[in-house]
Structure formats: structure tokens, C-alpha cells
Amino acid sequence: MNLNVVRGFSRTLATVLIALAMSGCGPDAGTSPQDEPGTPIVIDSNVVPNEQGPASRLLVNKVWRVTSPNRAPGTFYAFLSNGTLIMTSCVETYRLATWIAETPTRLEITEDTTVRYSADVLTLDETRLNLRLNLKNEQVNLELATPQVPFVCPDLPR
To answer: What's the whole-model pTM score?
Structure first.
């Protein structure tokens, strides 16, 4: 296995774990994040941004591994309760995007502040998440599952 890939994944995994740990931190009970400039959403750790219901606890603050074919090996998504979406893989650098639930079955994802698209939640349970990404020129079905822990990136061909 390429040592640079291992180091890169280790840094990415550390970033994801720190972000997940920090997502449990919040302001004092007497203050609201909406009172602070630049903070768009008030989030309860058991609620999808702007939505309530049982599906929300299944989606947020959990690492999801992409299982769809023809995707970069070890691609992961993590929908944090503060509205941050972490996307990374064993071969790509990580990306931080934002997400919000428009309805219980539709998410809005914004990448790079200009690329915005919706994602329909087709299936969501304790171990599976299927999304239909409504991109500018196409729709892409994305299958995800909770990963087995521990997970190590696969050896890549040289």
C-alpha cells in the first residue's frame, strides 16, 4: 500500500473524527446559535436540520460508506447535526459542504458555495441510505451503508 495514501487517509479520518466529536459541542443552554452572526441553523443533535422525526436520528452524526459501483474506493459521507457534510475517500482529499433537510425525504446540498443540488432520500434505516442526487444535468443514485469498524482503505493498484 502506498504510504502517502495511508498518511492521507489517516489525516482525513482524524479530521472526520474530530468533526464528529465537536458536533456534540454547542453553546450554553441560555444562548442560541442563531444569535451569533454567520450561524445559519439551530440544531438538536437528534434532529435533521429543519426537520423532526425518527428518520433524522438515523442520518446525522454517523459515517456512511458509499457502496455504489464506479465510485472512488472508501468514499465516505458524514451528515453532521450542525449542517456540515463531510465527503472523503481513500484516494481523494476531503470536502466540507453544507446540507439542510428541505423535507423529511429531500436534502439540499451545497458544495463550494456555488454548486447546489437536491438529494431525494429513497431508503433510510439503521444500516442503509439510498439517495438520488438531482444534479444539474443528470440524476445519480447513490447507495451508502454504515461501515464495518475498523475500516482500512484497500490497497490500490500501482
So the answer is: 0.67
